[in-house]
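Progress narrative, work stream C.
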Amino acid sequence: MTRTCKIRGIYSTALSILFSGTSGYEITFPSREISRRLHVAPSSKPADITINDRPDLLGVVVEGKGDDLAASGFPLGLTAIPGCAVMQAVPNKYSIYKGIVVGRNERYGYNNVLLSPEEQIVGILPDADFKAGTEVIVQVEVPGSKSGKKRPVLSRSITCPGSYAVLIPENKVTFSKSITDNGLRTELMDMASGHPARHDGHFGIIFRSACNDAHMDDIRADLDVLWSRMAEIREKMRYAPRGLIMDPLGMGQLNIIFSKQSLDFLDKIRGQKVITMPGHHYWRIVTNRAENADYLVDFVESLLVQKAIDEKPLARAFSAFIHERLSFPRKGDTVSIMHYKPNGHHFKLKPGRVVDAFYSTGNGRGTEDQCVSLVLKREFSPQPWHKSFYDGFEGLDIKPGDYSTCYARENFPVLTNKYFREDGTFLGCYYNISTPVQVFPGELQYLDLEIDVVENQAGERKVIDEHKLDAAVGEGYISRALADQAKAIADSVLQGKIKDDLACDDAFVA
């Protein structure tokens, strides 16, 4: 069975190539550029799978039937994209529960609703003020995380999406903006007014863009299925026990983080069909985050298409220009450290002030990429009423005035922190093992791989948290291959191949 995929965002060309080249998948609603570049025929078939950028642009969010996303050979799996992390959303989007109110957050004005007593899933119902113990019918609007740290956002407005239409509780009929034909709109309005979902169920209807190329019989059949489904759900609601899940769609959602390795892989995929500058997807993230700069990558690649200049000098000139114009870290700047975990959680670590910044062409490992090396000073001010300790140092407490010298090198899979007391007494060094560090304007970013190496005051090193890395593999967040890479890097640190300032001996290859 062929599954249709609608793909949008900065990864759309690479992912369209990936999906269209995999048996059983077809691109629908291709953009004009995708149709032209990949010779994909225009199509308005309903999408079985939709793919959009994450808000931070560091990956994608994939939605579709759970069975489709878990199918063997799915092109966005851990074994298909090197260096990525895949998080499954819990519970499924559009799932309907009879939950019970278990409390209220007065500060932010939402109720906490227990959805599943067995799994202890608690969701957030915004703008609600029910008493504890009240039973409420809710639908999952934004899924949470499998680990439970990110909680699902709920709604009492129950909707039911189909291929061509969506049933909504509001008593109105609306159309996708892409449905511009007045004749089609009139036909759809006539269909809606005579359908039992409207005059018996009093549901509103949104007609989706797929209606543009659909037969009216198919649209009516879709409405029939939705009406039957909603009638069944209403019946279940009447007698449902607490915690009953009513999930008529089985919709799943994957949240995928791409590391530097993933971006390099997608660059190569894109380069199979389209002229692609070195670091294309990394620069897409950089320029799309900046105001009015997203056209710059297109401009550079248009020069490559015209063969106006050789690729390597152009890439070096572009890199130098962007680093200068888009406020990449310089001496004296404050830089955030975005620490992403395999389970999807992320932490903004204590920022650092740049005490040294080194920019060069070539990173010492035979590539032509721009390399950035940074040295940061991070100062710590623990609260007097809260005892804080250094992770991995067996009870070593953090005191006011403590600081660390943090070393970070772009595209290098280790970030180190050397810790000191206020008087300069050395406390130890922490080697954070990760996917290759990426440098953006104002921040460093990487995917933490759980395993780390610590060095005490005597210079003795040991590996910590290897069990957390294995657990991340067991949970399906990262691949065994990526875990093995992390263990090999940790071993290189133990053997002294990676110094605390990230200088390496000749034997080390990242």
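Work stream C, second folded protein:
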Amino acid sequence: MNTLLPVFLKLEGRRVLVAGGGAAAVQKIRVLLGAGANVNVVAPEFCAAIRVLAGDGEITVRRRRYRKGDLRGCAAVIGAADDPVLHRKIHNDAGRAGIAVNIVDTPGLCTFYFSSVFQKGDLSIAVSTNGKSPTLGKLIRDAIADEFSEGYPEILETVGDLRGDVLRTLPDFDSRKRLFEQIVRTELGRRSLAPGKTKGGRDRYSSVEGKVSLVGAGPGDPDLITVKGLRVLREADVVLYDALISGGILAHVPPSAVKIDVGKRGGAPSTPQQEINDLMIREARSGRRVVRLKAGDPFVFGRGGEELEALRNAGIEVEIIPGITAGTGVPASLGIPLTHRAMSSSVVFLTGHEDTAKSRGQIEWDRIAGTDTVVIYMGIRNLHGIVTRLLSNGVPSGRPVAVVFDGTLPGQTVVAGTLDDIEGRVAGQTCSGPGLIILGDVVSLLHQGKQKALVQESSRTL
């Protein structure tokens, strides 16, 4: 059990000793300087970084071994010498002198630990792992930074500006406490950051109507959602998500939020678009923060434009958070550049979802034939028609093609060939996930990357 007392120590202008002259010492020195400490360093030798700090007058150094007298006047001492015998002596000396001591990577010889700290302005949030894993503490700190970097520091400034007046006006502790709570809650509600909600989902401290965020989740890999998209997702009251959204991304949805699957899959029952629009409008009008979570980018074959129009017509506030679309993210993850000075100076993105057999088509295939790189979404079911249109409009039969199923996910499958044999190669696949078609000479660069083992290569040389 962690029995540490979390405190913030004022070291500004106070003397702190660091015993050690290497990288571990540098790390601690920088933290101490950030706290305004008067840093004194003792060691037989110093690394270049410490010499620079000393030359700039930021620290005081003594080139010799540690002595007990070095602790005189110190508020704390850090052992960072990579010398167990010396560290034990420092620990014992500090204990007898009643001085706080930290021995790097030796929790048993520490009376205090350095925490992983997120800091912005006067807001500081520290994470302790009781000395067991500073690395994990840093990862948690980074997650906290994502959550609290916007809005909260500004609220702190507002409250800080009022604090003096409150202290002068209300001498009673309980009265001051209640007023500060009211001020903070009002600011949280005004900035749509209030953590508490009524049973209906509306923020307790805000009467502002909810809004909808159209968020792009990226091409599949949970790590490819944007930082802003992740932050908004973690603040959601309601999440309407596509069928292609991975569980790794949905894991970031708050437990208190309502999750609604409104996904569309070809040939399967799906939620009508009008119903999705009505859901978003109804939930936003109830004061909730709604996230419409869409695979890839909302505005690239994602019907985001239709949803934006419906929300604006209903007078709903809308926020657009772009995502990495599959057409750029999947090729990049495979080492396929869509443009290349020696191979491709033009790119076109197409939907393969339209009926390519109909006489009146929206895609001008004769113009597409002159494009260096073609990326086709949702085209697997119409692959035969797509190939036929490309060949009939002059695209060489030997043009390299790659079809990628479940791109950027652990189970992705890449099928490579040429325009005249890709149908047969894809027909042999049992993949059920969505497929992306990439056509162009740049596909040949796939074979130079780490993904070669995943590729079923054509008998032709690409």
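The chain has four domains: 15-114, 150-208, 211-324, 328-456. No further action is required on this item.
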